[in-house]
Design a protein that fits this description.
Elements (H helix, E strand, L loop, with lengths): L1 E10 L2 E10 L2 E7 L9 E4 L4 E4 L1 E6 L12 H10 L2 E6 L11 H11 L6 E4 L1 E2 L2 H6 L2 H11 L3 E5 L12 H13 L3 E5 L3 H13 L5 H7 L4 H16 L2 E4 L5 H12 L4 E5 L1 H5 L2 H7 L12 H13 L4 E2 L30 H10 L6 H15 L17 E11 L18 E11 L2 E5 L3 E2 L15
Parallel strand pairs: 1-4, 6-7, 7-8, 9-10, 10-11, 11-12, 12-13, 13-14
Antiparallel strand pairs: 1-2, 2-3, 5-15, 15-16, 16-17, 17-18
Helix pairs in contact: 5-8, 6-7, 8-9
Length: 458
């Protein structure tokens, strides 16, 4: 039995001081802070710091196996632990082979499980070749039985092993995924618009950061969102738009929700903090896809988080090999992606809570509770409740600190936040009752402790 003493939890936007009892990795009891209820073998005094239900990053690319020169499951989950993330959900496309059938799922699991410091779940995938051969129905059923939380689609892709899906292929696959009661997650940028304008920029010999922004044209995101919403309106499947970046895209999501469609979306810290003006100054460090947008988009995304039209926050963690893949003067030759898992929680505390944009209760929903509910991980994850997993993100809310590259656990020791002072720091990360990170000692967890979490959606 473990007691977590002097904890403050967020309940109905109020902070309540409690003691939390943990037995065999589960929450046994929660009592007022002045009550000492049960005898314990171990006690952790969190000294009045705020204890959130373990935060979840539902969109990461940890590149393992296959692209481990950029990231692997050890460094990726270490960065999660240091960032107060107790569960990550890894994408199917940035590993070799991609997670597109049961055999590939098992192959990946056997490689990454011994490396994991925090708990993890998998997205599944499907390719046009599987649709053409008819194999997709069998492979998707295999993946559902293995416990995937959903299926990832790209409307544009530069990945040879994971091509984009056409509208006819998505219609067929959405219907199969609906039968399995899973979620279809979409990287939404219209391939025709992006291909044309990206090629045009390069034909004009444009190499500046703004050419990436203009090539990855603004209209590509809303155009692609309209196309998949149109399919969902016919099929009535569950739809999720990843890394939303535009005001216009958000307005389509709002329309779809008003129509009663089962549509959700996420955005990322990079779209909430930076704009195209920052990209023009900073360059390749901020090269991502979709690209950074205008100030009006940034502000509207914050409003979407506040009014509930954006359902949660993810990172799209994608570390490039640094500095090699981020040092070309020609923006088109640089890797598109940044690591984000370790800094996401402090970033949202600083720019969200301390700048008055979000309450602690809203952050708790956006970074834990809503994700667990949407992907069928609730009530095991996402809540501080008797019977749930004893996953806790302990935050020193007012601690000021400076982001240093040497302290990043990712292989990619870079971030647009380097040398920025943030307010709000991870004090401790606890996964199923085991401390995996302490502010004063760093990573203290055991490699291989993290386990596969399967969706409970039937």
């Amino acid at each position: 039995m473990l007691r977590i003493k002097n904890a403050r939890i967020v309940k109905n936007e109020e902070l309540k001081e409690v003691n939390i009892y943990v037995e065999r990795g589960k929450i046994k009891d929660i009592v007022p802070g002045d009550e000492i209820l049960l005898p314990v073998e171990k006690e952790i005094n969190v000294k009045g710091n705020i204890v959130f239900p373990g935060f979840i990053d539902p969109h990461v690319h940890f590149d393992d196996p296959g692209f481990t020169e950029r990231e692997d499951f050890e460094t990726g989950t270490r960065s999660a632990a240091a960032g107060g993330i107790t569960t990550i959900i890894d994408m199917p496309c940035t590993s070799i082979p991609p997670v597109t059938n049961g055999k590939n799922f098992d192959y990946k699991l056997n490689i990454v499980k011994p490396k994991a410091y925090v708990d993890f779940a998998f997205w599944g995938g499907v390719t046009p070749q599987q649709v053409e051969s008819g194999e997709y129905r069998k492979s998707l059923k295999e993946l559902k039985d293995k416990g995937i939380i959903g299926v990832k689609f790209y409307t544009i892709s530069g990945m040879k092993l994971y091509p984009r899906m056409t509208v006819p292929d998505m219609d067929k696959t959405f219907r199969a995924v609906k039968e399995l009661n899973l979620i279809c997650a979409i990287h939404a940028e219209d391939c025709y618009l992006v291909d044309y304008y990206s090629n045009l920029m390069q034909e004009m010999r444009r190499e500046d950061p703004e050419s990436w922004y203009e090539g990855r044209t603004y209209e590509a995101e809303p155009e692609a969102i309209w196309s998949v919403v149109a399919i969902t309106e016919k099929v009535r499947n569950k739809l999720h738009i990843v890394h939303l970046s535009t005001k216009e895209g958000l307005n389509i999501i709002r329309w779809a929700k008003v129509q009663g469609l089962d549509v959700s979306t996420e955005t990322c810290p990079q779209y909430l903090i930076f704009t195209i003006e920052d990209f023009k100054k900073v360059g390749s460090l901020l090269k991502i896809a979709p690209p950074l947008r205008k100030e009006e988009d940034r502000e509207e995304l914050w409003r979407g988080l506040k009014d509930g039209s954006i359902d949660f926050i993810s990172t799209d963690h994608a570390a490039g090999k640094y500095p090699e893949e981020k040092s070309e003067s020609n923006i088109w030759k640089n890797y598109a992606g940044i690591p984000g898992t370790q800094l996401a929680v402090p970033t949202i505390l600083h720019y969200g809570y301390h700048q008055g944009r979000l309450t602690l209760g809203e952050i708790q929903k956006l970074m834990s509770e809503n994700i667990a509910q949407r992907y069928g991980l609730h009530p095991q994850k996402g809540v501080i409740k008797v019977g749930g997993d004893a996953d806790f993100t302990v935050v020193d809310l007012d601690k000021k600190w400076v982001v240093e590259p040497s302290k990043l656990e990712s292989k990619g020791k870079y971030s647009p936040l380097i040398e920025k002072e943030l307010t709000g720091k991870i004090y401790m990360t606890i996964v199923r009752g085991e401390v995996v990170y302490k502010e004063d000692k760093g990573i203290v967890g055991t490699k291989g402790y993290g386990k596969l979490i399967k969706t409970k959606i039937k």
